[in-house]
Write a structure and sequence with these properties.
Chain lengths: ~375, ~375
């Protein structure tokens, strides 16, 4: 048999779920993981323990892989260029990934290709932040370190010049953005293959709590057909223009005045696409694997009228397994996805999916299960 | 976290797919496999290579497992009793498994509890076969060795006394059964947990070619509601009466005169239930894991009007991966499930699932994909 080897860099839950989705395809899956306890390392046969920041570790890992893909966007771009020079297929490649790695590069590129973004520019110090505010509608202003942020980390909302010092302490460039007056957040998920085929999932609503994704509703309720098509087209355009291979999540703001603006990009399976595991004909993970192998993509259409995903965050209650009894007995259609992670307060340790015809019911079931698993409700 | 460890004995495709289904539950999966190349060993992290027929290997493997379950029914019953004496949860347990291990024990028990079976009795030699034939409608008669048969192996259809010698050569008891005049084969799949909860999947039609399952149609077309309910009730009764824990497949004959008779039992996930991976709310594999852990069972109802499974057998064409291009491009909804096995003529190396509203279309898509993967068609 000539089944290919997919090399996955990073052992988090995205790698874990990509492995799960790759098993039916009969492909070989090889994992580069920081530790044997990492989420994906617990369930994969062929694991190399090593540091992806070490070039020689990465090069040795890549030998024998037909393609390299990623659980996260932290691998240095220069390392990826060396792998490509070694003749390894890197998907998505460094030219695309730099836009996910550096928010400054991303904003510059999106503006260049005409994608609507919040007003933005790189700022140099708190006084420059004040100038940026004055150029527009004033404070508040959003500040982001161009690298290293996720789940609300590396992001500040500042109300005046005096409050704008912290983001500059890390010594990395800081991007200022207008604070968008949005009514909600959306996400457009697309998958693109090297030969240019692309599929687009329904646009979803992403409900954030404290800067962390809490609930995703697929499709986004009451979204106009026009905005939905516009969001899908934007994501397809970004994927094509940036040369993305694999899954691309485009996080969007829906503004009060009826526009959509791009917030963030992720070039890998994404939290806003977890609903596809149980709610779409082909999951984002299966399509990511197909894309990086340049196989024809699977049908992205929904299998249910509504699908809701709720993240399970760590709480004060460490024994989530005992909560299965109640959750499974209460809702025999509930889909639990746990990541094998130790519970720490606020840490994403799993998610649940529910689906059905009645959105209120589907939301309530997901909410109840996520809260019960976390331990914030006990009945 | 206090997530349990499920110990799986046997490294075949059923173990592989059970692991896949267990990943979302966050459970630990430990595998006892004959070789590192076995289907499941390719995709599981925690693998012990060893011979399940060796008691001490089995006992050592079971240490640290919360429950032991099985990819096949070949573990000696005496070994399982030792494990139970060691305090290990064995599910299904030896009292149930003996009925799947020995067709003579199975027939005796089913008759005792009033389950309709083909006329049968243990026969001692060819002359006794002739007497068995004369006791009923004469030849042909079906002969089966009571242990060791599967996929048509260990089964003979004999037309006279002279042709009845072979089955006795193996030196194991031989069961004679009337050759049932059936119009088709059905299968009733149920899952039962230790505390007695049970779920029943829709009754399916199983199309056999040369004694090997070829296609499964869910639900069985044109099956009367009465026979369907009777088949489901039979399977639930058998599961309860035999004390089955986990998945139970009951293979049935639908006779020309409108009755159903039990053909075979399997106490593990079964080929006739593979359609549930993509066609049911909860797959047989996920429910098997839930059952052996005594968790509440998942909803067994179908997600599509029709789901068809077609087995992919090895042919003369070894490179199935290259066939993915055509199959996936032709049918973006196709679900391929490959087992990581080397292609050998006639060997089950994978299966495909298709679903939809139009049975003729769903069957054609499954048939085409299975034939194309095998290499018997090239366009």
């Amino acid at each position: 048999m000539t089944f290919p080897v997919v090399g996955m860099v990073g052992g988090g839950q995205l790698a874990r779920m990509t492995h799960e989705a790759g098993i039916p395809l009969g492909i070989r899956f090889k994992l580069l993981s920081d530790t044997p306890q990492d989420s994906a390392a617990q369930v994969v046969s062929d694991v190399v323990i090593g540091d992806y920041r070490d070039l020689e570790t990465l090069r040795a890992f890549a030998q024998g892989c037909d393609v390299i893909t990623f659980d996260h966007e932290h691998v240095p771009t220069a390392h990826l260029r060396v792998l490509e020079a070694d003749g390894i297929a890197v998907r998505p490649g460094p030219d695309a990934l730099q836009h996910a790695h550096d928010k400054g590069v991303m904003r510059a590129k999106l503006s260049e290709i005409g994608v609507p973004c919040p007003r933005h520019r790189i700022v140099t110090d708190p006084a420059d932040v004040a100038r940026f505010a004055a150029e527009g509608d004033g404070f508040p202003v959003v500040l982001k370190t161009v690298v290293g942020g996720y789940d609300g980390k590396g992001v500040w909302v500042v109300r005046d010049e005096d409050g704008a010092a912290d983001p500059f302490l890390a010594g990395v460039p800081v991007l200022a953005e207008e604070k968008v007056d949005f009514v909600r957040e959306l996400a457009a998920n697309v998958v693109r293959s090297p030969h240019g085929q692309a599929v687009s999932y329904p646009v979803v609503e992403s409900v954030q709590v404290n800067g962390v994704c809490d609930t995703v509703i697929a499709p986004a309720p009451d979204l106009s057909a026009e905005l939905s098509a516009q969001a899908q087209q934007l994501a397809l355009t970004i994927a094509a223009e940036l040369g993305v291979v694999g899954h691309l999540a485009v996080e969007l703001f829906e503004t009060r005045d009826g526009r959509i603006l791009v917030n963030e990009l992720a070039m890998r399976p994404h939290n806003s696409g977890h609903w596809t595991q149980d709610g779409a004909m082909t999951s984002q993970f299966a399509n990511h694997v197909r894309a990086v192998l340049d196989l024809p993509l699977g049908d992205p259409r929904p299998r249910a009228k509504w699908t809701v995903m709720a993240n399970v965050l760590g709480g004060d209650f460490p024994d989530m397994y005992s909560a299965y009894l109640h959750c499974m007995a209460r809702d025999p259609q509930l889909k639990i996805h746990m990541y094998g992670k130790d519970v720490k307060p606020g840490r994403k340790v799993g998610h649940v999916n529910t689906y059905g015809d009645d959105l209120a019911d589907v939301r309530e079931r997901a909410r109840h299960a996520a809260d019960y698993l976390r331990g914030t409700i006990t009945e």
